[in-house]
Write a structure and sequence with these properties.
By secondary structure, this protein is α+β, with helices and mostly antiparallel strands. It has a seven-stranded antiparallel β-sheet with strand order 29-28-27-26-32-31-30, with helices on one face. A seven-stranded antiparallel β-sheet has the order 53-52-51-50-56-55-54, with helices on one face. It has a six-stranded antiparallel β-sheet with strand order 4-3-2-7-6-5. The longest helix has 30 residues. The chain is globular, with a radius of gyration of 46 Å.
Length: 2028
């Protein structure tokens, strides 16, 4: 019998602790009964918080009484139910006089205010009779409020002392003493208030009592949400309910817990959480809680909590939570059953004549049916769990663990995350602890889980059966809660209606403690007397019984035998093992590979264990050397395949075999197999050892209690540890299981005497102790390595490993070894110490769980160190003798073929070439045998990294696998883990070292080194690769092999090494120079304003010849270099840090004349000499001061006659340009000339010697013009259209002025020289562009003030009328600008292209005719940042088109992603990240599209409109070169020939100074910059054009691949060095050794430099390898499609040649494939080609090639002189008239060409229109428009739109309009024409202090509208994106010039890419915006003058943008570091 209530408490409002200024107060306990705590139930403190969960508060009116149940949990996890009834009491309040009241008011009357305070009556009980507790509190309140004639003390005393509740299944009235039938009775009682009450104890106390709570919860949330909550609760997630009703919260939490039955929730459970304890929601442990809905704001910050809204009927699952649900079939079945129960009318809803249905189902019945469905769900989840229980002890108490791995494996649910989480939960561990014993009282779940398999199978397809079974279980649950059949009418008096509104109601009285105590004492005495009456207190207890095991899960091997009965495979295994043990090794080796492959099957692995166990039983465990090796290899292979599973039955079965097989090394020394099988991670798993130990203990316990009959049966099973003998892996199904034996022993335990019980306990303990010693020895064998010096091969991991459920406590408090240190040092060198701790941890755990005596445990700990020491001593001799064994015979290392001059740097390192993510070489879908992995060796030579070997697959072992790439193409190398690959690849040894090498030739080498290759050699190989990949000097590369470097160059190379870090040192030195002030201002160091840029001198460092008088005069007139300050612009050149730090051109080698390469065309003899510094001023660089120690004197060396041999000069002459000296006047009629202004590289060192310029410009003008451009790369003419005479020009970007530049350029007497210089530069620009325009036919006769629409470049059929444009195909309508390519200097990578829907339409063009761009004679394409520097009003008939392009850093990132897509290191298994998705993410094709579209725009402008085009991007050597080169290919058929393409590369890429050395990282100085595939992108663009126009190119695509390969191979000197100047220097200092040995040999025969073109011509003379046999040119201008559907992924990126390696080194490839060409192939011959091995393009027979060879053979037979293949081909083509091209094209071809032209022109229009931004943006919801207001101007001001004067106070008559946001000034008539996008809203500049007139750079001429300042492509979308705050806080910011420090609130917005600042934190309007795309760097800084006081000196940091540098200081150093980190994350 138990008390109904433990305590009664009165809680009231505490007026003494009332909080001033807060509406909430505190509560306090006024009285509690009994006053002393019960001995068994202590009083719970803090009950006042739960009485008013929302807080104690005084109210102005009385509220109705409320009731709810709160649940508290004590320290012993016992739940206490607090029934709380709360009502209001009137309280008279005296208001407090305010402090500001005058003293004269003290005598005034004080009015009392009536308030109502809450008071709570609380009953605390351990029993969940919620309705009875509510009735009792209601009676007490009724007696008080209605003043009943009943003492309240009597009521309270009766509740606490007189009401005794019987346990479950009582009270019962036995019909007679012999019958089993009983009658359940009501427990009737009264508390003395005229009441009559009764309650019913349930039949079983283990089943939860819910009433109708579950039904209500399901009604509130719905079926799916309840299933999700169930899944969340059972998988230990955090769940929070909220509602406006506290009762609903308690009921919902109770209902959810009942759904988890039979599991018990063991985490935090608080159904009603007070508002004062909301911080508990931040607990890291799982919980189920409930809060009032008024705390909704507190829930918004919970990111890992599942929130259920009971009132709204929804649940919220955060994104960070991965909610796992039950298996789909189980979940769907449960959902269907819930639908049947809750919506029974659903199945009849569609019936035409439905039968009437009784829908008056009680809520309690529905509740029990819902619980029945969830109970069946639990049974399905745990079906067969009892077969995976492992018995450890039976007496004195059963100890049982659960084998999770076996359970998941047997049910084929390995990897099922939901069930895995359920089995790992604490709830399931407690369930196994409680319900694991096999002999106990059973409940409904035990029977349900035992029969659930049969039940589900019978119900399949019969929902009516399922519904009947559900109702049967529901009826059982209902009867459990309502066992009494008879009804009982209760009488519960209720208070008078409206009694709570009485005003004069007396307060709740103070109860007499003595009277209450007497009543309680009287009730307790009566309870004692009643307990003595056995008849009255008799309760029929349930009997214990054997727990049913249920249907056993079918064993895996049985199911596999039925599915996969491969008798042949098992027969091969049996035969091979027989050959091994019969010592027939040769026969065994033939079958061995097949056996290794078959071990991937688990059935085969189990068969292997059985076969090996038979040989152990036959005493054949001692093996010979080769037998031992093969057996160990089989065991390793089997363990490798099985180690990844948590089911350890195979490893446990292998354990006795490993300790049995051995071999004799010498007398007294035996090596066991365990010393060769220690590398598997299973041996380092603590869970494995526990599982194996428990299994063996179970077997021995079973044998201890088995009967004699069973013992005889067991005697036949000689190998008892075979996994086929058990339901747990050890016992057959026909035998009694250990649980059945344990159940019998537990049943008989009470019948045995004391001595017999003690003996049983002692025997079981002895078994556990002996097994612990046995396993300690096994662990010593498996964990101590053979070579103790190498350490453990597998780290020991234990934390979280042991997840088995157990009955006894896992406390190891008595273990000294465990308490000493619970963690293990995996990196410790003391192996023995690690092993001892590992074994001690295991012993502590298992012995404590199994109840081993402490003395035995101490003895065991004392034995472990001795075991380890003895084993180490034994293994020392084994290790010493094993090293004397003869090594395993390995295949011979194949030697690779080498090129002439190629030398081996390192001999072959034996290893294995592993398969990567490509399908080539591994067979599979590609077909053919598996060529990878291959066994061989990796070599390092001076030119290549080579792997050569043979496949390990026996079907392909006769083939040779070769994979190589140039070492100069090495992109990245890293170590890889290959420890677990040996067995998976069926190798014979364990591999420790692995290396992965990735090259920019799109090759990947994954090498696993052989065990004979030590880590030192691998590390040496890596270092040598790095040394050869990045040599100190370019002249140490393979291209210069056999060359001699001049002594002068050697000296300069050493100086270069000494100053290698000077660039970094210069930065620090210059930074420190800011602080140095040594006196006057002239001592103060002048430093650049940007840290990441360096200043170089105005003039090049190449000295000039002795100046003439005219030259001296010009120098005197010009401003001298010494007078120009470092910061002056544009008189100095700014270099980016990336470009300068890795600029190989800074290494300047100077000498006098020298021999020049035949590749470059120079012819001079070497001269040696040195010259002092130049007399003409200081030319010293800030970076390198030694560059002028040796100078070049190019007099009589570089002459015009010699330069005419250059290919690019010959191309100039082909285009009609003639050479004319700069000092001579050009001939009449020649508008352009080939100038010698740069013949001595005086103007630009990166430009060619000869350039084409207008004849009207003198050389001096060109020199001044060069200063306007970066790197002095002035505009040069590279090509002229033969028809329209339009010109193609190239240059670098213009110099722009910043704010300081404008200030310095202001009129000032002290800076007049600088102003004149700037003016002269503008004049030179005007001269140049004027000369170009006048000589462009399109512009020479063109009026400068007239405008022409875009119809000039539209086809005749297109007009500007709406809807008149022919419909374009969707795939061919892609443009560039609207796709969103954005260039930024410090932001993230360019965004992905968007839809074509935003392109320019004809309606847009027609609607804005007044804003059409001018038809210019010269279009200049450049960066957006140059739009202000380029003043359109100065250059008539010129138009500047800003264009967004991808910077080099974007190209670098794109290459990385492209290589991961094309050459992945592992197979791509994720379907969402396939090959094409990765290529798309790399944005490589987008960049190719960008190049092609801009080049296509140049084609249309020059070919159709006749306008000249100039490209001025970045420094003019990357993107500019790509576009210019591709444009010439599209327009000039000459460049589509072999000769022309060579000339194009020589001109545009080599002569015009593309930085091959820098971009390809050819030396160590350029390593940090990263590889930039600029030239590779150009070749890919040509490939795209070639693919669309295959008949227009004389060369084939193999020619492009050859160039792509060798431009990074460093085999030839053609693609080396960064400019023609550097190549000239190299030619003068480097010469071949052979020239010295053969002085008579002419230079024409053998030049000092190796040319790629000579190599190509040599091959081309022999065979048409690069010739396109389908070459049939039919058009001069090509217009390729640029939409993505027309672009192809270049097969060069995915090509693989395993047969002979890359075919681009023709000598090597022909040697590798020579054996295949020994017999010439005939047309009728056939040959098998494997695409994953052979080079199909090279191996497939070509009829054209065969015919040409046949003609050559016939010519030889006829005695004729062999002719060149081209001659024979031309003669053959002429003899076939059918090969002549048709002159007239078909109509379809013409339509296709017209469509191509139309789409091409459409793209060009879009580029022009988008670049000029002539289209008015369409009004969008997020657009920020101008806010114009009338404004009176006091000074004359120009209109910002039309540039005309605004009439202010000077002249009235026209009002001016001014935008209040951005300050835009305009005429009133101009306002409708202005683009509506407001600059201020998207501006990146700080707001100015007041309106100011735009600067000259911001004024745009009329008719040429440009993009408003500050508006970029990204800014247009700012208003659409909501405000996000990634990081915020206060910072002190230094103002602009001459302003102080101010504190501002800064907000970092990563989504908008902005840094905004506000006046205060709550300021709604930001004061300024810093656009992160303009940020160049953010870094810590030094304190500056005027900084705020008391600030940390380490908290300063600077943020530099393209506009200015911002200075900040944070409060602390960590805060500054946080800001720097957050900003850098946005920039990366």
């Amino acid at each position: 019998m138990s008390r109904l209530a433990d305590y009664f408490v009165v809680v009231g409002y505490d007026h003494e602790k009332e909080q001033s200024g807060s509406p909430y107060g505190c509560g306090k306990i006024l009285q509690r009964f009994p006053e002393k705590d019960w001995e068994d139930v202590p009083f719970i403190q803090g009950i006042d918080l739960f009485c008013q969960p929302g807080g104690w508060k005084l109210l102005s009116k009385a509220l109705e009484p409320t009731f709810f149940i709160a649940v508290l949990t004590d320290i012993e996890a016992e739940r206490h139910y607090c029934a709380v009834l709360t009502f209001s009491e009137a309280v008279k309040m005296t208001p407090t006089r305010p402090d500001d009241v005058e003293e004269e008011l003290e005598g005034a009357l004080v009015h009392h205010t009536m308030m109502f305070a809450p008071k709570s009556l609380v009953i605390i009980s351990r029993l969940s009779y919620f309705e009875t507790l509510k009735n009792c509190l209601g009676l007490i309140y009724t007696s008080y409020i209605d003043s009943l004639d009943v003492p309240l003390e009597t009521l309270v005393g009766n509740i606490l002392g007189h009401i005794q509740v019987p346990p479950a299944n009582g009270p019962q009235n036995l019909l007679n003493d012999t019958q089993e039938s009983v009658e359940h009775e009501w427990v009737r009682f009264s508390i003395g208030a005229g009441d009559r009450q009764a309650l019913q104890p349930p039949l079983s106390d283990t089943l939860p009592v819910t009433g109708c709570k579950v039904a209500v919860l399901t009604q509130q949330l719905g079926i799916r949400n309840v299933l999700c909550l169930y899944s969340a609760a059972i998988t230990d997630n955090k769940i929070l309910f909220h509602s406006n009703s506290y009762t609903r919260l308690t009921e919902a939490c109770t209902a959810l817990l009942s759904l988890l039955f039979p599991l018990k929730y063991s985490y935090v459970y608080i159904p009603i959480l007070p508002a004062a304890l909301t911080e508990v929601l931040s607990t890291p442990t799982p919980f189920i809680m409930g809060v009032h809905s008024s705390l909704r704001n507190e829930m918004a910050e919970l990111l890992d909590v599942i929130i259920a809204d009971l009132d709204g009927g929804c649940i919220s699952i955060p994104e960070c939570i991965s909610l796992f649900l039950p298996r789909e079939d189980i979940l769907q079945r449960s959902q269907d059953h819930l639908t049947l129960v809750l919506n029974p009318e659903l199945k009849r809803a569609d019936l035409a004549f439905p039968s009437p249905v009784d829908s008056n189902t009680k809520a309690e019945i529905t509740d029990k049916e819902i619980r029945a469905i969830f109970l069946r769900l639990q049974a399905e989840l745990l079906m067969g769990y009892r077969s995976c229980l492992t018995l450890i002890r039976i007496h004195p108490e059963p100890v049982i663990t659960f084998n999770k791995g076996l359970f998941m494996f047997q049910r084929s649910l390995v990897g099922e995350e939901f069930l895995s989480k359920v089995l790992d939960s604490m709830s399931f561990a407690g369930y196994v602890n409680e319900k694991g014993p096999p002999y106990r009282v059973c409940n409904i779940f035990d029977k349900l889980v035992a029969n659930i398999a049969d039940t589900v199978s019978q119900e399949e397809g019969h929902p009516e059966r399922a519904l009947k079974n559900i109702r049967d279980v529901g009826d059982y649950l209902f009867i459990n809660e309502n066992p009494t059949k008879t009804a009982y009418l209760e009488k519960i008096p209720r208070p008078t209606e409206g009694a709570h509104t009485r005003i004069n109601q007396m307060p709740f009285p103070h109860l007499d403690e003595t009277l209450v105590g007497d009543v309680i004492e009287d009730g307790l005495n009566k309870a004692i007397l009643q307990s003595l009456n056995q008849k009255a207190s008799k309760v029929r207890h349930q009997k214990a019984q054997n727990v049913p095991l249920g249907t056993k899960i079918s064993r895996y091997e049985d199911r596999m035998n039925a599915i996969n009965n491969s008798a042949r495979r098992l027969e091969v295994l049996k035969t091979c093992i027989g050959h091994i043990f019969d010592n027939r090794i040769l026969d065994a080796k033939k079958l061995f590979p097949a056996v290794l492959r078959s071990l991937k099957s688990r059935v085969t692995r189990l068969a292997l264990v059985r076969r090996l166990a038979l040989h152990v039983q036959e005493n054949r465990a001692v093996l010979e050397q080769q037998q031992f090796d093969m057996v160990v290899r089989l065991i390793n292979c089997a363990l490798q395949e099985d180690s990844s599973s948590e089911e350890y039955s195979l490893s446990m079965a292998m354990l006795p075999l490993i300790t049995a097989f051995c071999r004799k090394l010498c007398t007294g020394v035996i090596q066991f197999a365990y010393s060769c099988t220690q590398d598997h991670p299973v041996w380092a798993s603590l869970r494995f050892w526990e599982t194996a130990f428990y299994q063996d203990v179970e077997i021995n316990i079973r044998q201890l209690y088995i009967s004699e009959c069973d013992t005889k049966c067991d005697s036949n099973d000689t190998f008892t540890e075979s996994p086929s003998n058990s339901a747990n892996g050890f016992i057959t199904s026909s035998e009694r299981s250990p649980l059945e034996i344990a159940a019998e022993q537990l049943r008989l335990w009470g019948t045995r005497d004391r001595d017999e019980q003690d003996k049983m306990v002692q025997n079981e303990e002895s078994i556990v102790y002996s097994q612990a010693i046995h396993y300690a020895n096994r662990m010593v064998c498996m964990r101590v390595p053979l070579d103790i010096q190498r350490g453990l091969k597998n780290s020991i991991f234990m934390d979280g490993e042991s997840g088995s459920s157990k009955l006894s406590s896992s406390s190891v408090s008595g273990s000294d070894s465990y308490n000493a240190e619970s963690t293990f040092e995996s990196d410790s060198n003391d192996v023995s110490h690690q092993v001892i701790k590992f074994i001690s941890r295991f012993v502590d755990k298992v012995c404590t769980e199994a109840g081993v005596a402490s003395e035995h445990l101490k003895n065991l700990h004392a034995m472990i160190p001795g075991m380890v020491a003895m084993h180490i001593e034994t293994l020392d001799a084994v290790n010493r003798e094993s090293k004397r064994l003869p090594p395993i015979k390995k295949p011979k290392i194949l030697k690779p073929s080498l090129l002439p001059g190629e030398e081996k740097i390192m001999d072959g390192l034996r290893g294995y070439l592993l398969p990567d993510g490509r399908e080539d070489g591994i067979g599979g879908v590609m077909g053919g045998p598996a060529y990878l992995p291959a066994e061989g060796a990796i070599f390092l030579t001076s030119y290549r990294v080579i792997f050569k070997g043979t496949p390990i697959d026996i079907q392909a072992c006769e083939q040779v696998v070769t994979r190589s790439f140039p070492v100069s193409a090495l992109f990245k190398e890293k170590k890889i883990t290959v420890g677990g690959l040996a067995n998976s690849l069926h190798l014979e040894q364990f591999m420790q070292e692995g290396l992965q090498l990735r090259s920019v030739t799109f090759q990947l080498l994954k090498i696993a080194f052989d065990e004979e290759v030590g880590a030192e050699r691998v590390e040496l190989f890596r270092k040598m690769c790095g040394r050869i990949r990045y040599p100190q000097s370019l002249y140490q590369t393979f291209a210069f092999h056999g060359s001699t470097v001049s002594p002068l160059l050697s000296v300069q190379m050493k100086q270069k090494e000494k100053t290698a870090t000077l660039r970094k040192l210069a930065t620090k030195t210059l930074a420190r120079g800011k602080k140095v002030v040594t006196g006057g201002s002239h001592h103060k160091t002048k430093l650049p304003s940007r840290k990441d840029r360096y200043l170089l001198p105005v003039e090049p460092l190449v000295p000039q010849r002795p100046p003439s008088a005219a030259t001296l005069q010009r120098q005197m007139n010009a401003a001298s270099l010494d007078s120009i300050t470092v910061d002056s612009r544009p008189n100095s050149v700014l270099y980016e840090e990336e470009d300068l730090s890795n600029d190989d051109s800074q290494m300047r080698v100077r000498s006098r004349a020298g021999s020049y390469s035949s590749d470059l065309g120079f012819d001079a003899s070497p001269r040696w000499g040195r010259r002092s510094r130049s007399q003409g001023g200081s030319f010293l660089s800030v970076i390198e001061e030694n560059d002028v120690t040796a100078t070049l004197k190019p007099i009589d060396v570089l002459t015009t006659d010699k330069l005419q041999k250059k290919l690019y000069v010959q191309d100039y002459q082909r285009l009609g340009f003639n050479i004319s000296s700069g000092m001579m006047r050009p001939k009449l009629g020649e508008a352009f000339r080939i100038s010698e202004v740069n013949i001595h590289f005086e103007v630009s060192r990166s430009y060619p010697s000869l350039v084409v310029v207008p004849s009207a410009l003198s050389d001096d003008s060109i020199r001044r013009l060069a200063k306007c451009h970066r790197q002095y790369r002035f505009p040069a003419i590279t090509w002229r259209h033969p028809g329209t005479k339009a010109l193609l020009l190239r240059s670098s970007g213009f110099h722009g002025k910043g704010m300081m530049g404008r200030i310095k350029s202001a009129p000032n007497p002290s800076t007049s020289g600088s102003s004149e210089t700037s003016s002269s530069k503008s004049i030179e620009q005007d001269k140049f562009f004027t000369a170009v325009v006048l000589n462009t036919p399109c512009g020479s006769s063109y009026k400068s003030d007239s405008l022409v629409s875009l119809n000039a470049i539209l086809p005749p059929s297109m007009t500007l009328e709406p809807d008149s444009t022919p419909h374009m195909r969707r795939g061919h309508s892609g443009t560039l600008l609207q796709r969103g390519f954005h260039r930024s200097s410090g932001g993230k990578s360019a965004p992905k292209p968007v839809s074509r829907n935003g392109s320019v339409t004809d309606y847009d063009l027609a609607s804005k005719k007044d804003q059409d761009p001018r038809k210019a004679a010269l279009y200049i394409f450049g960066e957006k940042s140059q739009s202000r520097a380029f003043k359109m009003e100065q250059f008539n008939k010129c138009d500047f088109i800003p264009y967004d392009f991808y910077e080099t850093r974007h190209v670098k990132n794109s290459l990385k992603k492209l290589m991961k897509a094309c050459v992945p290191s592992n197979l791509l298994t994720d379907p969402e990240c396939g090959f094409h998705k990765l290529v798309e993410d790399s944005e490589w094709m987008v960049q190719i599209q960008s190049i092609m579209q801009l080049a296509g725009a140049a084609v249309d402008l020059m070919d159709l409109q006749g306008s000249s085009v100039m490209f001025s991007f970045e420094d003019g050597w990357d993107f500019t070169t790509q576009v210019v080169s591709l444009a010439q290919i599209l327009m000039d058929p000459y460049y589509r020939t072999l000769e022309g393409f060579q000339s194009l590369i020589e001109k545009e890429w080599l002569a015009f100074g593309h930085r091959f050395t820098h971009r390809s990282n050819q030396t160590g100085a350029h390593q940090a910059s990263g590889f930039a595939p600029v030239f590779l992108q150009f070749l890919d663009s040509v490939h795209q054009v070639h693919s669309q126009f295959p008949l227009s190119f004389e060369f084939n695509q193999y020619f492009l691949k050859m160039i792509a390969y060798h431009h990074v191979s460093n085999r030839f000197q053609t693609f080396m060095l960064d400019s023609e100047y550097e190549r000239f220097e190299a030619a003068t200092h480097v010469f071949e050794d052979k020239l010295t040995s053969h002085p008579g040999e002419s230079q024409d025969d053998k030049g000092p430099m190796r040319s790629f073109w000579e190599y190509i011509n040599k091959i081309n003379n022999k065979q048409p390898l690069f010739y396109n046999l389908a070459f049939a040119p039919h058009t001069s201008v090509l217009r390729p499609y640029t939409n993505f559907s027309s672009l192809r992924i270049w097969d060069y990126f995915r090509q693989e040649d395993l047969a002979g390696g890359p075919s681009f080194d023709r000598e090597l490839f022909e040697l590798a494939t020579a054996e295949d060409k020994e017999v010439p192939l005939l047309p009728s011959d056939r040959r098998v080609i494997n695409n994953c091995y052979d080079n199909a393009t090279q191996a497939e027979p070509d009829m054209h090639m065969w015919l040409l060879e046949e003609m050559l053979q016939l010519e030889g037979d006829l005695g004729r002189t062999p002719q060149h293949w081209k001659t024979r081909l031309d003669r053959a083509q002429k003899s076939f008239p059918s090969r002549v091209r048709m002159k007239s094209l078909s109509v379809k071809i013409k339509e296709a060409q017209m469509q191509s032209i139309t789409a091409h022109k459409k793209t060009t229009i879009d580029i022009l229109v988008k670049g000029k931004n002539i289209i008015e943006p369409q009004p969008k919801g997020f657009a920020a428009h101008h806010h114009f207001e009338a404004h009176s101007y006091m000074t004359p001001t120009d209109c910002d739109y039309c540039s005309q004067l605004l009439f202010g106070a000077v002249k009235q008559g026209c009002k001016g309009m001014k935008c209040s946001d951005c300050g835009f000034n305009a005429h009133e008539d101009c306002v409708p024409k202005i683009p509506k996008q407001c600059v201020r809203k998207g501006s990146t500049k700080e707001p100015s202090t007041g309106p100011s007139r735009p600067t000259s750079d911001e004024v745009v001429t009329a008719g040429t509208p440009v993009t408003p300042a500050g508006v970029s492509g990204y800014d247009e979308f700012h208003a659409k994106i909501g405000e996000t705050r990634s990081h915020e806080g206060y910072l002190n910011k230094r103002g602009a010039r001459l302003k102080g420090w101010k504190q501002r609130w800064f907000v970092l917005d990563a989504q908008k890419h902005q840094l905004r600042y506000y006046e205060t934190r709550n300021d709604p309007h930001c004061k300024g915006i810093i656009d992160l795309k303009e940020v160049e760097s953010v870094q810590p800084a030094f304190p500056t003058a005027g900084a705020p006081k008391k600030c940390d000196e380490s908290a300063f940091f600077d943020l530099k943008t393209t506009r200015r540098a911002y200075n900040f200081v944070a409060d602390t150093k960590p805060a500054a570091e946080e800001w720097i980190s957050r900003i850098q994350d946005c920039l990366s």
